[in-house]
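Below is how a single chain appears once it has passed through the pipeline. First comes the sequence as given, then the structure the pipeline wrote out for it. We keep one example in the README because the format questions we get most often are answered faster by looking than by reading.
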Amino acid sequence: MRRIALLPVVIYLGLFVADSLMAATPLTTLHIFHDTDGNAPVGALVLGTNGNFYGVTSYGGTGTNCGSGGCGTVFEISAGGAFTSLHSFTNYDGEAPRGGLAQGSDGNLYGTTAAGGFFGPGGLGTVFRVTPSGEVTMIHWFALGSGGFDPEGDLIEADDGYFYGTTAGGGAGGGGGVFRITTNGVFAPLVGVNQSSAGVIQGSDGNLYGTTQFGGKSTNCVGGCGTVFKITLNGVLTTLHSFDGSDGSWPLDGLVEGSDGNFYGTTGGVTGQSCSNGCGTVFMITPDGTFTNLHAFGGPEGREPHGGLVEGSDGNFYGTAYRGGASLFGTVFQVTTNGVVTRLVSFNALNGGFPAARLVQGSDGNLYGTTQTGGGTDNGLGTVFKLTIQTNASASITCVLSPASATNMVGTAHTVIATVTSNGVAKAGVPVTFNVTAGPDLGQNATNNTVANGNATYTYTNNGTPGTDTIRATSLGATGTATKVWSAPDSVGDGIPDLWRAQYFGGNGATTNSQSCAACDADGSGQNNLFKYVAGLNPTNAASVFVFSVQNVNGQKNLIYGPIAAGRTYAPQFRTDLASGAWGALTFSGPTTNLNQVTITDLNATQASRFYRIGISLP
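Resulting structure:
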């Protein structure tokens, strides 16, 4: 229901059903942590494209630069419990990962650590990339300044190809903020918010949605009771709701968009067992900010939820409570869209304790999650578990995208059809979100509803660049993918597609002359047509040029280059002798972006002479 302003009384739509009143919900402990393989998993698991789950632990591992507790780990685990420890952090590559991982469209996993990094024990956090085999690369380290520090939430890859995340401290306002970063580390702060301990999600409307633990209009909580916010991809912030204590306080995790288009989340109300500031809530909020409190926790069904919710294939939502339940070690619960809460599991230390992360639903329909502590009788340090949901309302949702693959000429239109079914029956009138997640048309998207036969169509036009698009359709939690190859004839055979040559020099582009040839410098800028095609520049505009410079700043060499064009890969390289040796990949910090110009810092510029170049390539 909508919260009525100025009235101190809040009515909750909520019922509680004990776990003894429903069919048994089997819990299987898949793994118990014992320090060297990890300790205290507080971030959510992510389901990889290979069917296995990936996660992090905040402590433990074999790293020795963080004291006896370890610096944290990255791990992989199958649905059957086969466990692999992929990486132990060393502090210098990060320490204390608290948010879950995100698998990018490139197949790699991306995450954050709340501490560590380039400054070692004094570091303020990192963004890292890890391959499915466990090779970790730090792509950004945080420091004092406008970029913020202490990232604790998940990353998400948005439709524009950037990853977005949050910091809990620093930034322009001092309380953290939202940032974006590319897969190769080009970093930019987006907007300041007040201590978001969770990441953001991208709604079907293309905007980012999230929560802050503190801040807002209310003075009923120390530091504010928290907010729900919306941010456009260009950084325009809108506060959708300010909690005031009576409707919840201190949300600790992010939101989930339901299949009805609304957002669902939890507040922690964390004050210990007394719950003097409330035991937490479940809420629903529309994209325009209409707020409904669905349930207020009382203890038996759980209390103080630290993790957010996940929508199951049956249309219900599932979550964990950090405390409460029959043994006070926390619970797993189900909540319907009208606020009926059912306790599914009570943790008792032997099967784990104090779950802090949201759940994830596997391709087998089971729920998977972690507990921060407990497991077994030998002082386990957290668990990974599987929960089999037994309900009469379970549904198998499929979303199939066709054609699965196709090839077209660049610059033309392509149509895909998503077919959505539930237990084999067509689902009419449900939204399907289409996104081009990789390729030359990265970022194109739309949301269309299915018709009577369960089909929804999406048509988009290629931007004239050759390559392969990956198209994703998502509906009711199910996902389908397809690929589209855009081919570009090069009649001249000089590396420039006919379409590009025709765009700037007229004709059909199938022939060349003294102005349009690959080696020609049509605008007298000193950069020929082939270079301008590869770099994404205008060959008829002398002001459209790629600029590269090196500056000495405080004894360090800064490389500044741009403009940056979409779909291009930029590879900084160096060598110490132009007469001999080979060009090698440059190790650098940053990058930062300002007005489409990138700045990076050479971390190893100790030689008397050092030469640089920037390689630019198309996929």
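The longest helix spans residues 498-505.

See the next section for the split statistics.
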